């Protein structure tokens, strides 16, 4: 380490050599993994005190290097040493040294590197005792009088801070102006409630002027400021908290600027649906986004502010003006009252559909986006007999010359009824989308968007469209076969990525078709499984296609249920390696999901696979590498297996219950554990193995008690908890666990129903009746017990708890709705 620090300090060495030495020194001191960091810290503290001091001195001296890059690396080294020493009381004068560099030195490079060092240190350590001094030093670096704009940019009490930041927006350096507006955006997001005075005094004017700045970097941040204001006020409205209504006050000043920005910058594809250079954020996109949020923040007030602009430009000769008008109309559709917008949309729809034939492709793209928002937000304005035919025709025609005009949100018209207004167009739309996907390129992601649109239409297809869906799956499977046959022809990483992407898209469509056809997919099952197994075998171990292929298998298992049994043996050799791929979190998660799908599909037939499943799941729980979320899913798996095979789960009961008990003692999110317990208890209920649950009742109820005592518990946790108590009571109706069910905390929880959703209340009522029966309280008016609140005449006709998939749904039956007040025990 001494040699590395000497090399970092050596001004005669090449800069790349110094940087490499500094980074090596920093990496020898810091690590992302906490265990490794402890090792590095212990190794550093074990060094000779003199050696440590020399390394620290060299690092501090390098902050003043004439080479800024060397100073920046030295700042990282100083931070890494501070992260080790400051928490244990070492290097107590470091902060004072750094503050001295800023406050007393005229060396620009030293100030920049020191500010960077302070920033790095503050990211890792809370320096509460020196926070005021640090803040003063940072402001000292940002003040208007500072001669170096680089120092000001590196730097970043309330009035003083706001004064300095506001003054920095007027600095001659554009970089400093950008940084100042970035600060204002962050300040507004964090301290909205304290901004009224500053908005009135300065920020209104500064930010509006900033949006007009000739440099797009400054204008972008000024627009972002108002987007942030609107986001905060939208959130306040949702939470029914007091708002300062900055957006509404500034509306007359801000809206004209945003509209002018749209006029001046459109044609660069302002929205992702028409963005030629995808991922590049520009001023037009920012202005359109701000307008969108402004509409949500000020609601009806935005309509009269923009309508004159729309009317003046929507038929203009200049296509930029036409696009800006359409963009503006599409941006205000969310926020104002639908009753205010409906007449305007009714008037605009024929015109917008006509604009789909515009000669300019940018205008067509933006119009398609606007029509999509109308369908998404104001579907009632589209009259099937008037608008649907010209709308669908315009969109389908648009696919031929502008493939990016893909998605249109007509899901509201696609219902579960036997027919829908879209049924006559279904085959034509899907055929047109399939033609779009035949291209070998994926410019602007349009091919993927087309496949996504097919998936959406198939998922929502009505009964009369089933023949089209069946033909679609044949076409998709043919494409999968063709791709598999081309696999040996792949050359280079680009071809491989394109192949993987296509297979993923095809898998997504197949999944949606399986879910739509359900058991009707049986005639195609052999072909699907053959192709999927070939795909899994041909894909690399780290390929994302594996996840999609596994999802196809899971969907097929859920659709076929017991009919999936013939494919299990062929699939298991691919499933087990995926379950053991602990470093591939997503693949392992999907594989665990299939372990859950198989028992649900096969029921008690899955008992023959339970041993192997349990072994690999327990191995996953013991892994130090596997992601915690996967382990949560593994716990739920135990419940699915137990529920499916019932008493055949007995050999794994004690081990499972021990694992769940241990997990419950450390698991901050107990939902998966509750699901597992519910599956086990329900699987053993009313069987000869029910008594085996008795030793585990206390630990189960202990977890339920913890969950219900949590003030931040979710409604799903409450529902699972009540249901689990009811299941236990239903398992032991003859008083075997009476002493547990009569504990005061259970009585207390069953008294309160405030704030519960209706389904949770039903579960509570069902569980209460189970407890009354199990505790012998059905005809007993025992004092003070909440179990005497309701006495049902249909007590002995109660249906048992029923599990559907992940959800624990109890059907309390009509008894819950037939409570006779005269039978209530007071």
From TrEMBL:
Q: Which domain of life is it from?
A: Eukaryota
Which residues belong to any copy of the Importin N-terminal domain?
1-65
Location in or out of the cell: Cytoplasm
**Gene Ontology biological-process entries:** protein import into nucleus
Q: Which PROSITE patterns match?
A: IMPORTIN_B_NT
Q: Which InterPro entries match?
A: ARM-like, ARM-type_fold, IMB1_TNPO1-like_TPR, Importin-beta_N, Importin_beta
Q: Give the similarity note.
A: Belongs to the importin beta family. Importin beta-1 subfamily.
Q: What is this protein called?
A: Importin-95
Q: Which organism is it from?
A: Suillus fuscotomentosus
